[in-house]
Predict the structure.
Amino acid sequence: MSNAPAEEIAAEEIDLTEANEIIDKYLTLPGNLMPVLQGIQDAYGFVPKPTIDLVAERLNVYPSQIYGVLTFYAQFHLKPRGKFIIRVCVGTACHVQGAERITETFFGRLGIGHAETTEDLRYTFEKVACLGACGMAPLAMVNDDTYGKMTVQKVDEIIETYNARPMK
Ligand code: FES
């Protein structure tokens, strides 16, 4: 399943008021590109395309320069992200303990793949490198919650738990 529809909906609904306020705050300060982009990401959860055009125009920088910054730093996201970010570790210890089966199970249950977001914006899924808790392999995280010794059954329990959480 593609995440394109979620992107299109989000792009249509972008209200630039907040982006303009963030730019106003930093407009006259030197080195303002990073704080402006960080502010926009905090406000919108990602950096929507219309805000990139706005920043380019108001800060008088090339959009290509902004894309350079956004793609260089892993903290920035160009697509809408889910409320719940599911990360499955695919580092060596987790791989040996069956991380692939866990990943495939999430893919099957959620209908999305790596770095994709469900259409309802509830979940984003990411494979990640070692999370530093190899003793608990295979490891998954949902936002800041850690789930060790993952099994297929635990995948279902996690999805049930976060399906029941409110979106607001
Ligand atoms: S390899 Fe998965 S936590 Fe280290």
